[in-house]
Amino acid sequence: MEKKIRILIVDDEVRFARNVSRLLATRGFDVSMAHNGLDALEMMNKTRPDVVVLDIRMPEMDGIETLLAMKQLEPEASVIILTGHADVETGILAIREGAFDYLFKPCDIDLLMEKILQAAAVKQIQRRPVLWPRRMVKEITNAAFIPLDITDDLTKALEIFNAMGTVGLRETLHVTDNKSRLRGMISKNLLIHEARKKNPGQSVCWETLTRHPQWLPSKRIGDVMTTATGIYALPDESLDQVAQKMIDHHLRCLPVMADNQFMGIIQLKDIFYHMSTDRENNGQEYGEA
């Protein structure tokens, strides 16, 4: 990174904030901390961070109130919610009020770093208005995916992730057989783990791995993939049902299955956005659900 990305960590758990700040600093970020909403606003004025990582549950001024105040101070602020107290209502409200993403604690540091890079690259997402209410899984399923087979090499998974672009939002690829049945999953973190095992002396993160695909071992997808969890969404399920299911299991992405076949994926962030838009179109305020 030529110019260090400025990060503001806002969390009332001092030890947690310090640990995250230290890990991000070792990865080349310029990190500052605040432990409540008021201090965060003051720090935001001083440091003008590129990305804010914000907790939800804080005393006096909670994360949502802090998010609203930050957006008034700087409408294009990129704010990532990182919470150990996830629920559907705060997720909907956070995305409605402009949060870039909504992550669960505990969060893998490589995933957090990737989200920070995405948020810094896309300062403000311009969303198009939804032309009709979307309330069912099948209406927002992402069915555009490149098949990944258990016999493929790990480098193919890396190539697919890279083809999604530097601001792609998927961290997991789903592995199917020749009958489109879901066999397992492979994540960016798993590829990083395999590269680190092969190259113990290298500092491997996603950014460096994409530049050095030779760091991956000569293994097949089936040798390292994780098995499917058995948790999935059905096309005719409602978005609110699936959102609660994903929060209960700390999942940000879920496969969509029909007749035992893999149809695509659905992401929690997209669910929150469409539920928020539906409520706005119906004139429903937060807390009325």
UniProtKB/TrEMBL annotation:
GO terms for biological process: phosphorelay signal transduction system. It comes from the Bacteria. Keywords: CBS domain, Phosphoprotein, Two-component regulatory system. Pfam families: CBS, Response_reg. The keyword GTP-binding does not apply. Residues 6-120 form the Response regulatory domain. SUPFAM superfamilies: CBS-domain pair, CheY-like. InterPro entries: Bact_response_regulator, CBS_dom, CBS_dom_sf, CheY-like_superfamily, Sig_transdc_resp-reg_receiver. Residues 225-285 form the CBS domain. The keyword Phosphoprotein applies. This is Response regulator receiver domain-containing protein. It comes from Desulfotignum phosphitoxidans DSM 13687.
